[in-house]
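2024-03-11 09:14:02 INFO queue: dequeued item PTS system mannose/fructose/sorbose-specific IID component, len=272
2024-03-11 09:14:02 INFO validating residues
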Amino acid sequence: MSKEESVKLTKSDIRKTMFRWYFSTEMPLNYERMQSVAFTYALIPVLKKLYKNKEDLKEALQRHLELFNTNATAGGLILGTVLAMEEDKANGGGVTGQSIIGIKTGLMGPVAAFGDSFSAGTLQTLCILAASTLAVSGSYFGLVMLFLGNFILMTELFLTTNLTYSKGREAIKDVLSSRTMTDVLEGANILGMMMMGALTASMVRLETVLSVKFGETEMLIQENIDRLIPGLFALLTLLLFYYLINKKNLSISKIIFGTIIASVALSFLGIV
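2024-03-11 09:14:37 INFO prediction written
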């Protein structure tokens, strides 16, 4: 393809692709193809612009319907790379369809690990924690914090997509393998664990009303436990949930219903 016939993507094309990806990521999620339907949907306007030939367009749509699953906002690292590669391929560059599939498949795991620990596990968790705390106190700023969390994630998607589109496919390797990113991920994991500990201590309540009598003296078990290890039952509850999820592979819905049933039963028996 000559320079006169070459097709270049605009900032508007990239923004439209990002928004389509962000708002559709979880909608068509399925066990056969995971997020590939949403990813293909996001790319359709761009692919139609790049490939005027019907067969070329069909081939492009088919390769993006291959199984794909990653973090939505950190996934901008892959989205920008794919946009650059598709543009290069459509303009007669050396990129092949298989290389595009290979890049997507090879990077979706590392990008998901980065996004789930930093974006979802830290940034989003902190905003939800702040929103929950404000909501409990009756403040409408809790809603503002939720919007702030979404704004931060959208900003991440914008930056990662534009970075890899403008810098090329090598940029994502530099980002994920850099020492700075390793330190950021480690710090994010530590901060995330601290926040989960603070959330457990402030939001989880489990106290027993049982007491023990020694002659005429009645001793409340909860008071004595609080003197030794405050919040012990809340900590044990957290560890139990972690064990059930991590070791027994119980779903969140089963744990929620189990907790409700156990709470009602223990309350009925006069234990808590």
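2024-03-11 09:14:37 INFO annotate: Strands lie at 211-214, 217-220.
2024-03-11 09:14:38 INFO item closed
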